[in-house]
Amino acid sequence: MSSHSIPIVDFAPFLDGSAKQQAADQLLGSFKSHGLVYITNFGIPAGEVQEMFDLSKRFFALPHETKMLAPRPDSGRHHRGYAFPDREKVSQVLDSGDSATEADISLPSVKESFDIGREDDDLMPNIWPPDHILPGFKESCLAFYWKCHEVEKNVLRALALGFGLEEEWLVRYHRKPDNGLRLQHYPSVALESVLTNKVARISNHTDFATLTILFQDNVGGLEAEDPNESGRFLAVPSIPNSIIVNAADFLRRWSNDTIRSPMHGVRAPPYAVAKDGMLPDRYSIPYFCAADFSTVVDTIPGTWSADYPKKYEPVSVGEYVMKRLYDGY
Asked: pTM for the complete prediction?
């Protein structure tokens, strides 16, 4: 493991229009080289992000039986509500043309989560705890969900410009949105058990939709595979007032493999300081962004040619994402 070399993109020049193309080129360049990027000045005030972390901590501090008043269903196709530690398996599905083979990763992941979508989603309706349990929880989560959607659309606009396309080209495929906001808590765990690979905070995996926007606290432990050396992982530490945006497998496929989808996981941070041998609790908030499930997409224009032909057939977004959700549960 090594320190990160991931580019940092100041998004203010894109949002204010002073240097849109430059920011777009930096963003796409990082996605091509690393598959992920730090973004600063992304459009959500730091205070609002901190309020969501505070709310997340309050939820996860509730007794187990209280959190189980909003349980995630047993079906692997309904990712909403509360999932207790070890409820979710982490497995890696590898694309091979139009087929996929699954390689289960057996290392146990120690985390709990609460998943939220849009309120009008008939496929995966939200599952909320009773209002009196944590007043304002539902309203705050939904407000943050839609703020993240605005960030998502701006990132997609920048990527479209980077590809030399009209600015709204990718946004048109992300209108719904069929996305997921996840509050995530990694309970305190013995440092030795992580260092000796008995458990992981989350095992190595790739994400599978379009992209993921990640807010993380300062505890550390996130790693991403070195793009220049397979099997070697780089620390991805928290940078104040930034988000991490990583490309996912669907976007890699959509881009004809010109964009990377990085393998990543959460283990012990470098130079971890453990109190009484225990790593501290860690919190993160990922926002998983997918194209509209009802659409079928073909390879992004400009990513293929006679000399570099299309690698993949057109694919249904809904079928692809739901299969990956099911396989990973």
From this structure: 0.91
